Amino acid sequence: MRVALSHVTVTFRSGRVTALRDVSAEIAAGTHVSVTGRSGSGKSTLLNLLGGLLRADQGSVIVGDTDLTKASGRRRSRHRADNVGFVFQSSHMVRGPVEANVLLGARYRRMDRARARDRARELIARVGLANRIGDHPDELSGGERQRIAIARALMGHPRLILADEPTGNLDPSTAAEITELLEEVARDEAATLLVVTHDPALADRAPLRWHLDEGRLVAPVQA
Ligand code: ADP
Ligand code: MG
């Protein structure tokens, strides 16, 4: 899904902290974008804005055909459930097998149980965990838990995948594997993918690279 930001500013603490400053940029549907920047530069704020968790103070944020700056809280929740899959650095896992953890991605979505189970099984195979389906998260490696998180994020067929430092806890080769998996699934689902990373080599894999410096988007680099 297409994303268009125009002169977006986001502040916190009644305007005392500016997390994003006058950000304008576009992403064509289906593009993979990497987002880099120092800690505190606004990366998570940017993802949360696109996911409808935050609202801009100024400017417009258009995702698909929804203007999130004008949308009600309810409309933004709908956007999140219908369009967005989030992957974080570490995801909450419940005590239960892989399948139960992937099924958490069906919450807040209108999916009947049978369809949700079919989708979960398909995704577990897709992320390479078919032979671990009955295992519990504490029996899995960090990389395998991120595979669960990716499968969970895909449950609702998101058209926008927002990954906030998904490889922050992984060794370099596992980080590369997980980044490749995100790219593959995003391509297969024709989803737009934003991945926040601190690793320049992983960032450089993306055809579109955004870098934030104290809330400003410094010239997007198009490969
Ligand atoms: P990054 O993800 O790049 O580390 P963030 O987007 O989390 O950066 O934060 C950008 C700035 O906004 C920081 O100065 C941070 O302290 C501030 N900030 C982020 N979220 C909040 C919040 N909920 N309340 C107050 N300040 C916040
Ligand atoms: Mg962050």
Question: Can you give me a brief rundown of this structure?
Answer:
This protein is an alpha/beta fold and about 220 residues long. It is built from 7 helices and 10 strands.
What does this structure look like?
The protein is of the alpha/beta class and 223 residues long. It has helices spanning 43-50, 73-83, 98-103, 113-126, 142-154, 172-189, 200-203, and strands spanning 3-12, 17-27, 32-36, 58-63, 66-67, 84-87, 160-164, 192-196, 208-213, 216-222. The protein has a single domain, classed as P-loop containing nucleotide triphosphate hydrolases (Rossmann fold), CATH 3.40.50. A six-stranded mixed sheet has the order 6-7-8-3-9-10, with helices on both faces. Strand 9 (208-213) and strand 10 form a beta hairpin. Helix 4 (113-126) crosses helix 5 and helix 5 (142-154) packs parallel to helix 6 (172-189). It starts with a strand and ends with a strand. The model has no long low-confidence stretch (mean pLDDT 95). It binds adenosine-5'-diphosphate and magnesium ion. Adenosine-5'-diphosphate is lined by residues 12-13, 17, 19, 37, 39-45. Residues 43-44, 164 line the site of magnesium ion.
